[in-house]
């Protein structure tokens, strides 16, 4: 049977950008014989409007069964008044939690045509293609004890960095698997010089590395890593790091490259019976209520999220490259949505205009 894909367009510009991805998915079915068993459902405010909950149990169950979930975005001002328990983002949080998605993948990818958008020099970012794997379900954001306590005559704020061997082992494996599908180079970042969790992190990653002899493993202190990411990011291929450092490093690295409308992401969990990891793919951006319904949204972040699904869930690395090359081609041809404008005299295309251009480039590929 065909690989299965659950599509959750969500709210705001989510459905607008997802409509373009649907056309691209159909293109791969028609032209490349790559058919998916696609189902579509509601999440976020859209699900709340229909069911009174931001994620219906049936949708959750379906997400657990499919080979990959592709999500648009959730949220919007209309839902700001809702009780915390039914807020749109709770739908997304429930998906991440129940699927136990512990590896967050954030690429920093710079298409040549957009290199001048970066605040860094063109040669530092042009052609950049690195991946940061951030541990997402443990570490200092979750560790106990935590809280604000009274001590003597003042208050103390406490958080605990805590990682078990198995938590480090599983995210390290995700990172090595990715490295195998990419440049076979992995850099692990922690602060083993000053943190016990960092010492354990380095030990466990080194141990897991013995199962991946083809991957060249290196270690770097995370502060030095931050510096190197800005100085010469092309030295990296895959970076694996903990929740806190990954939060900072992935935001910084993503912004090396330009617009929010260009950034895809993935969250992966444990391998399923068929060997594929549980997986949720989504653009980094939100529902953009300021431009929703106007056909202005850039669909590329969502398109590239699907490209990630092709590569990391469906083992279609060559087809993922085909799609990324098509995006590169339209950008090189000067096709721009409004968020990418910079050059004088360029007229922006609409969301579907960008979809048309990418489909045209795919046809020519
Ligand atoms: P946002 O990412 O929705 O928008 C920030 C700015 O970037 C806006 O000016 C927007 O127009 C622009 N932008 C974002 N995506 C774009 C695209 N594809 N093309 C062109 N321009 C784009 O973040 P914001 O405004 O903080 O949040 C809006 C809503 O989205 C809130 O309800 C928030 O909770 C939700 N949100 C949802 C996320 C998710 O579904 N994963 C992530 C972040 C926010
Ligand atoms: Mg962050």
TrEMBL record:
Pathway: Amino-acid biosynthesis; L-leucine biosynthesis; L-leucine from 3-methyl-2-oxobutanoate: step 3/4. Keywords: Amino-acid biosynthesis, Branched-chain amino acid biosynthesis, Cytoplasm, Leucine biosynthesis, Magnesium, Manganese, Metal-binding, NAD, Oxidoreductase. One of its GO terms (molecular function) is NAD binding. GO terms for cellular component: cytosol. Mg(2+) binds at residues 223, 247, 251. The keyword Aminoacyl-tRNA synthetase does not apply. It comes from the Bacteria. It is found in: Cytoplasm. Transmembrane segments: none annotated. One of its GO terms (biological process) is L-leucine biosynthetic process. Its EC number is 1.1.1.85. Residues 4-358 form the Isopropylmalate dehydrogenase-like domain. NAD(+) binds at residues 76-89, 286-298. Its main location: cytoplasm. It catalyses: (2R,3S)-3-isopropylmalate + NAD(+) = 4-methyl-2-oxopentanoate + CO2 + NADH. Substrate binds at residues 96, 106, 134, 223. HAMAP family: LeuB_type1. Belongs to the isocitrate and isopropylmalate dehydrogenases family. LeuB type 1 subfamily. This is 3-isopropylmalate dehydrogenase. It comes from Salipiger profundus.
């Amino acid at each position: 049977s065909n690989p299965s894909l659950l599509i959750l367009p969500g709210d705001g510009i989510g459905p607008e950008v997802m409509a373009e991805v649907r056309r691209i998915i159909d293109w791969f079915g028609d032209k490349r014989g790559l058919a998916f068993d696609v189902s579509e459902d509601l999440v976020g405010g859209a699900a709340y409007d229909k069911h009174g909950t931001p994620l219906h149990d049936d949708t959750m169950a379906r997400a657990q069964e499919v080979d990959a979930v592709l999500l648009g975005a959730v949220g919007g001002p209309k839902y700001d008044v809702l009780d915390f328990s039914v807020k749109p983002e709770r739908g997304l949080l429930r998906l991440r939690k129940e699927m136990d998605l512990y590896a967050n993948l954030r690429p920093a990818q710079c298409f040549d045509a957009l290199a001048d958008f970066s605040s860094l020099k063109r040669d530092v970012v042009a052609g950049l293609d690195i991946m940061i794997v951030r541990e997402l379900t443990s570490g200092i954001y979750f560790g106990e004890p935590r809280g604000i306590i009274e001590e003597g005559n003042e208050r103390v704020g406490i958080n605990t960095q805590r990682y078990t061997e198995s938590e480090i082992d599983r995210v390290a494996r995700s990172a090595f698997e990715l490295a195998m599908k990419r440049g076979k180079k992995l850099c692990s970042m922690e602060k083993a010089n000053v943190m016990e969790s960092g010492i354990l992190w380095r030990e466990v990653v080194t141990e897991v590395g013995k199962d991946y002899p083809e991957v060249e493993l290196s270690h770097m202190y995370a502060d030095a890593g931050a510096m190197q990411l800005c100085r010469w990011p092309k030295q990296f291929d895959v970076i694996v790091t903990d929740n806190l450092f990954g939060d900072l490093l992935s935001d910084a690295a993503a912004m090396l490259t330009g617009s929010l409308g260009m950034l895809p992401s993935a969250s992966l969990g444990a391998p399923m019976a068929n060997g594929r990891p549980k997986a949720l793919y989504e653009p980094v951006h939100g529902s953009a209520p300021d431009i929703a319904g106007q056909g202005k949204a850039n669909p590329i972040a969502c398109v590239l999220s699907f490209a990630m699904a092709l590569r990391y869930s469906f083992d279609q690395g060559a087809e993922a490259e085909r799609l990324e090359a098509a995006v590169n081609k339209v950008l090189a041809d000067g096709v721009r949505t409004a968020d990418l404008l910079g050059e004088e005299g360029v007229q922006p295309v609409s969301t579907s205009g960008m979809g048309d251009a990418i489909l045209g480039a795919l046809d020519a590929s």
